[in-house]
Amino acid sequence: MIATKKPSTFKGDFKPTWCPGCGNFAVLAGLDRALVGLEFHPEEVVICSGIGCSSRFPFFMRTYGFHSLHGRALAVATGLKVARPELTVIVTTGDGDAASIGGNHFMHALRRNVDLTCIIMDNQVYGMTKGQTSPTSTRGFVTKSTPYGAQTPEVDPVWIALALGATYVAQGASHDPKQLAALIRAGIEHKGMAVINVTSPCVTFNRACDYKFYQERSFNILDKQPDYDPSDRLAAMELVHNNQGQFPLGVLYRAEAATFDEQLTAVADRAAATEVTLDDVAETFH
Ligand code: SF4
Hints:
By secondary structure, this protein is of the alpha/beta class. The protein has helices at 24-37, 73-83, 95-101, 103-112, 157-164, 177-189, 211-217, 221-224, 233-242, 260-272, 278-283, and strands at residues 45-49, 64-67, 88-94, 117-122, 168-173, 194-199, 218-220, 247-254. The chain has one domain: Rossmann fold.
């Protein structure tokens, strides 16, 4: 039973503790605008996070929230969505949380097409632990953890999302909050695994990748390719591949496919229609 009125803002009573100028503020505003626009009640929404600056998100929203373990937000969100499919579950995470310690969960949530919206605030650095190289840091990036420069090639969350089966893949930027809000809203409306990677500057620990850096390297997909077809996954991968070091903004890919909870329901229905018992299944392992 939904008890409260639809709010005019989902921002909570706690003032965000992010550094002034952090890119995460634009994501907070974009998610707030999307939830208000979609006319949710607070009880219908759960925000799950892991660990990191971006994972403080649930504290600052007037929804249910789950500040879980490092890298485990998608695992928690998957369980929640399977148990309570009527809820709208949103994961707020960072490049370290999603692509390093949480890489395994990221991969499997993508291939399962769990009906979640995963917003990655990608600042190419570990901010909360005061500036170490993250999986998305560019090669050669000098930090406290890599004084001679990062030696390994960077991970691209957009590329992984496309390759492993997300059915909505978009990229937004904190320097374009209007487009970002629209991309988040479309991700929430999408049925299936939606990934929105956001270039979100860490103004304190990654001054090389500031707002100007991302503005100079970003382009709107439809400006460059007005006839771009977001239903073509290979075209999306080609776009990313051909523009390495750049940030294509907009919807890269969108498709329809059975969601994880729908797949589980179908299996449960089939199982219920048979006379196979759990003992029968256990017998097969002997
Ligand atoms: Fe944002 Fe970086 Fe400050 Fe963390 S350390 S709040 S990512 S600016």
